[in-house]
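Entry, Tuesday afternoon. Goal for today is a structural model of the target with S-adenosylmethionine bound, before we commit to ordering more compound. Inputs were pasted exactly as handed over by J.K., no edits. I checked the ligand SMILES twice against the vendor sheet because last time a stereocentre got dropped in transcription.
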Amino acid sequence: MSTATISMTDGQFTRLRDIIYERSGIDFQPAKKYLLESRLGRRLQELEMEDYDQYIMFITIGPYRDDEFQEMFNRITINETSFFRNEPQLSVFENHALPAVLDARADAKRIRIWSAACSSGEEPFTLAMILHRTLGVRLMDWRIEILGTDISGKALEIANSGVYSSYAVRSTPKLMLDRYFTEKNGHYELDPEIRSMVSFETMNLKDRMAARRHGQWDVIFCRNVLIYFDEKMKKQVVQTFHDQLADDGWLFIGHSESIRDLDVAFEPVDIPEGFCHRKVGCNPAGAGLKLSA
Ligand SMILES: C[S@@+](CC[C@H](N)C(=O)[O-])C[C@H]1O[C@@H](n2cnc3c(N)ncnc32)[C@H](O)[C@@H]1O
């Protein structure tokens, strides 16, 4: 196979960019043209296509267009993640959100957590480990539902395998690593009990109906994906979270992401360790928290 790069004209870039935006809400700025070119160039070679016009036809009107869309997303999305990513936020979850939810759901004994855009599953599994450690033997009294969703089927294949590289566990505290993983030939296999606490599903955040099918959540994590969306898509996604979050629920977005200007009824919660959001007017339960101005 030739390794020569197939170049993308500005017109082809604009058409691909529009198609990607239309389907996923991911906003590829012109400065990212090189990224599309490098990630899709190899795909064109595999398909023995000579230029991007052929590829654009293939993903818009070809009989395999839906499969190819999935393949394209697998290649163009940035799946960077790790277990115990952003420890301060996780401590807000563990020390504030979780106690409040356990308290509020003490009668129903049911907790529902959605990790949206979870990539290869490290985030929802991290939340499962925190819950497992917090609840201990009380775990059997509770119905725990943790759902991880992502647009990339390839990333979810890793999640479903439960086997990770040493890079994926690089931020995992030693105690948790020893307790919940088994090392085999340089790979880390997750404890079956933790695996059984999480289910995975392919979901495009653009698809509001898909989100609605799952009903209401007590906690939603959606970290480090809003940065890839434009304002319109960001607002639509955050509105979906608002619709699908219980009135006393908790929303966690990435620490470098902001939803302040979106005109969606969430307010940041003032916690020294990290930050999260709750619905406007929600009375913070339990931990004596203030909604910041
Ligand atoms: C950088 S990863 C973040 C993973 C994890 N939330 C974390 O913070 O570690 C971004 C993920 O967003 C997913 N993604 C991008 N656009 C999406 C969309 N429209 N719907 C669902 N997932 C999407 C990508 O496939 C990728 O796995």
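The chain has a mean pLDDT of 92.
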